[in-house]
Design goal:
- The chain has 422 residues and is an alpha/beta fold.
- It has a domain of 233 residues: FAD/NAD(P)-binding domain (3-Layer(bba) Sandwich).
- Helices cover 32% and strands 26% of the residues.
- The protein contains twelve helices and 17 strands.
- The strands form three sheets. Strands 1, 2, 8, 9, 10, 11 and 17 form a seven-stranded mixed β-sheet that branches.
- Bound molecules: flavin-adenine dinucleotide.
- The site of flavin-adenine dinucleotide has 32 residues, from α1, β3, β9 and α8.
- Pfam families: FAD_binding_3 (PF01494).
- This is 2-polyprenyl-6-methoxyphenol hydroxylase.
- Keywords: Monooxygenase, Oxidoreductase.
- GO terms for molecular function: FAD binding; monooxygenase activity.
């Protein structure tokens, strides 16, 4: 059934970080919208995620920082070690690095619930509709009609809007309709096991530490909730990465097995962290292939466009997935503010973000921050070093992270200088 009149001005498909921040941003500028998600109920799923200062700036403008402070951790620094426990590099993060905005390390579910609660409070309970899986859209001249099925595959009434935004994640139905020949996401040859478990704080108590290198096992560890048991323990998140010839299912909730990756890490001894102990007591462990997709030439067809992982899924090597989705949302809202809900606004959004996010996707393949680990691994021949300065200088290491910050849009001076997006 197609309604003759519009049901909503902007129809957002997907209640992840991208979709929810777009809803909050549209409310801020007085544009009516509604969010539809496939799941019957939105629950706090996932494990750890990082929000870097360029994203937190946007969340601050939406008044969300106090709620994030209640659930997450203000990150103080980022460290890099080789697999023999030797320190390579540490740099300050968030406010400690001179940003006027913090970096947050937190549980993805906590993040999503902060955003969802704000949407329900500010836009009303009926602004987020669950149990609606988008199947396809019909494009009109200045409208778009969305077709949905319910949890049991039943047809649901279609919904008509001035603009539809597909923020429906890496398996986006809208992207599939626009690019039917694209196929599966592209497997990097690397698989990720992740999980979280109570552990005592290490180093600064708010550090993101990266260790090892892909070919010999890479590990990233960071706390995502403080004092979870009244005894000072934190919920510690880990992401273990190993080469694996074939990808597993692209299912964010798929369970992995300890024995498939533990042997690589069983002898890792760090004076600040019991790696084998942490891995052994984590339950559940989730598995996900490291995938992305090639950048697209355009995200916009008629009155429908893509946003977030639907538009530019990227390797999770620079803590930028949620951040780039949030930037998309704010830039799209800014275009609507300037041009109204029009073709012109969609065009401006498309040309700006397709190019900018394409650079981040490519940078995440070649030289994300963990390229620091690659340099030391290769130059040391994967052996303990006597003196780090004999193989790499501090300036070289700093240049890797600074280049990444510039491309991803969070180099400190660049971020302080840039104007508000909405
Ligand atoms: C279940 C889940 C767990 C995750 N866990 C982690 C994690 O632990 N760490 C991490 O760094 N990243 C995780 N991610 C990815 C991370 O959330 C994103 O990379 C990032 O936040 C960008 O968000 P997004 O809004 O573009 O997409 P997503 O966060 O993927 O949100 C997409 C939303 O669209 C909905 N959707 C999908 N298809 C349809 C459809 N056809 N119709 C309607 N709705 C649809 C999904 O239910 C989901 O709510 C997870 C994503 C998901 C969906």
């Amino acid at each position: 059934m197609t309604h003759a009149t519009k049901d909503t001005e902007v129809l957002i498909v997907g209640a992840g970080a991208g979709g929810l921040i777009l809803a909050l941003s549209l409310k801020e500028i007085g544009i009516q919208c509604r969010v539809y998600d496939a799941v019957p109920e939105l629950t706090a799923v996932g494990v750890g995620i990082n929000l870097l200062p360029h994203a937190v700036r946007e969340l601050d403008e939406l008044g969300l920082v106090p709620a994030l402070d209640e659930v997450g951790i203000r990150t103080k620094d980022a460290s890099y070690y080789n697999r023999f426990g030797q320190h390579i590099f540490t740099e300050p993060a968030g406010e400690a690095a001179g940003y006027p905005w913090p970096q947050f390390s937190l549980h993805r579910g906590d993040m999503q619930m902060v955003f969802l609660n704000a949407v329900r409070e500010r836009l009303g309970e009926d602004s987020v509709v669950t149990g609606h899986r988008l199947t396809h859209v019909d494009l009109g001249d200045d409208t778009v009609t969305a077709h949905f099925i319910g949890p049991n595959g039943e047809d649901l009434p279609s919904v008509r809007a001035s603009v539809l935004v597909g923020a429906d994640g890496i398996k986006s139905a809208l992207r599939k309709q626009f690019y039917p020949d694209e196929g599966d996401p592209l497997y990097s040859g690397l698989t990720i096991w992740r999980g979280a478990t109570p552990m005592p704080p290490f180093l600064s108590g708010a550090n993101t530490v990266r260790m090892g290198w892909m070919s010999v096992g890479k590990l990233m560890v960071y706390p995502i909730r403080n004092n979870i048991d009244g005894q000072g323990n934190q919920l510690m998140n880990f992401v273990a990465t190993l080469e694996r010839p074939r990808p597993d299912l692209y299912d964010w909730n798929a369970k992995g097995r300890l024995e498939d990756f533990f042997p690589t890490f069983k002898d890792w001894h760090f004076d600040f962290l019991d790696v084998p102990g942490m891995l052994q007591k984590t339950d559940p462990i989730l598995i996900y292939p490291m995938v992305d997709r090639d950048p697209l030439p355009t995200w916009t067809f008629g009155r429908a466009t893509l946003l977030g992982d639907a538009a530019h899924p990227m390797y999770p090597r620079g803590s930028n997935g949620a951040g780039q989705a949030i930037l998309d949302a704010r830039i799209l809202a800014g275009s609507f503010k300037r041009h109204g809900v029009t073709d012109e606004a969609l065009h401006e959004y498309d040309v700006t973000r397709v190019e900018a996010t394409g650079k981040v996707v490519r940078m995440n393949r070649a030289n994300p921050p963990d390229a620091i680990l690659r340099e030391v691994h290769e130059r040391s021949g994967d052996k303990p070093f006597e003196r780090l300065s004999d193989i790499v200088s501090d300036e070289e290491l700093r240049a890797i992270t600074e280049r990444y910050k510039t491309v991803a849009g969070f180099q400190v001076d660049q971020l302080k200088r840039r104007r508000s997006l909405v």
